[in-house]
Specification:
Layout lengths: L3 H30 L3 H5 L6 H19 L7 H13 L4 H15 L5 H11 L4 H15 L7 H14 L3 H23 L5 H5 L4 H10 L8 H14 L2 H6 L7 H22 L3
Helix pairs in contact: 3-5, 3-6, 3-7, 6-8, 7-8, 9-11, 11-14, 12-14
């Protein structure tokens, strides 16, 4: 257990500013003990390089997942193209995304090295790592199911990003619910006001529970807590401050809208005030 950063930080902080200085020194020392240093203690805005690493890794790993079954299908190409559309990529940006996707399909694509570089660039921030994993799950669900080869790659991604098998299974279930949620919204006429006013079907309500990572048997308080937690994790401004590329802000906004809609349906169905 590393404690010297805390000890020295508290000591020098107290000398400089009594109790308030000691508390500040303790906090900075704690960051040093965790290997973050002063840069981690006073985190700077994400650089363009960090965002470029995120951008490349997103499409390269997506291409790698698409090739997992041996041949990239039309569904998988459509998912990647749809993602580019949702990110409103055009011109040079779209060409860069397509090139990264192509590199990911190569037989010698360095998956672990790419993930390690991304994790380092993201400074190990869990919300960013999870958002990245959720995007990759969209590629895995392109044909409506996750095949064995795709699941193996997803497990490698989860391992490299620091997620356990249990966490991956939970995120998988939530991602499947999100895909169902998204498709049913499109079939129901999009996200317009008329759609929002319609009472949800049994299947839609089931997806809403899964999207929040809860079950119908959970208490109102547990569901409300899960909703707030998911909103906090996916808040676009928070993710942007942690390194989310500007091109992906629209996706983050869509995610929070889906979380909000899921909560509204559950709240109305259960009479939660």
């Amino acid at each position: 257990m590393r404690i010297w950063g805390k000890v020295l930080g508290t000591f020098f902080g107290f000398l400089l500013g009594n109790i308030f200085g000691a508390l500040l020194g303790l906090w900075i020392g704690h960051r040093f003990d965790r290997g973050m240093g002063i840069r981690g203690a006073f985190q700077r805005a994400p650089s363009q390089q960090q965002q470029a690493v995120f951008f490349h890794a997103t499409f390269a790993v997506m291409g790698h997942i698409a090739k997992a079954s041996g041949q990239v299908t039309e569904h998988e190409i459509r998912v990647a193209s749809n993602l580019m559309d949702r990110m409103r990529l055009s011109g040079e940006q779209r060409v860069r995304a397509q090139e990264s996707f192509r590199q990911g399909k190569e037989s010698d694509f360095p998956l672990r090295e790419t993930l390690a570089e991304f994790r380092q660039a993201s400074q190990g921030q869990r919300d960013i790592l999870r958002f990245f994993l959720e995007v990759q799950l969209q590629a895995a669900f392109a044909d409506g199911k996750v095949e064995a080869n795709e699941r193996a790659i997803l497990q490698t991604i989860a391992d490299e990003l620091g997620f356990s098998r249990i966490e991956l299974a939970r995120i998988l279930a939530m991602a499947e619910a999100q895909m169902n949620f998204f498709h049913r919204q499109q079939q129901g006429g999009g996200q317009g006001q008329q759609y929002r006013q319609e009472p949800p079907s049994r299947d839609r309500l089931k997806d809403a529970y899964q999207l929040l990572g809860v079950s119908e048997s959970d208490s109102d308080q547990e569901i409300k807590r899960a909703y707030r937690k998911e909103m906090s994790k996916h808040h676009p401004d928070k993710l942007a401050a942690k390194g989310l590329p500007p091109e992906m802000m629209e996706m983050a906004k869509e995610k929070t809208q889906e979380i909000q809609q899921a909560w509204e349906w559950i709240r109305e169905a259960r009479g939660i005030r």
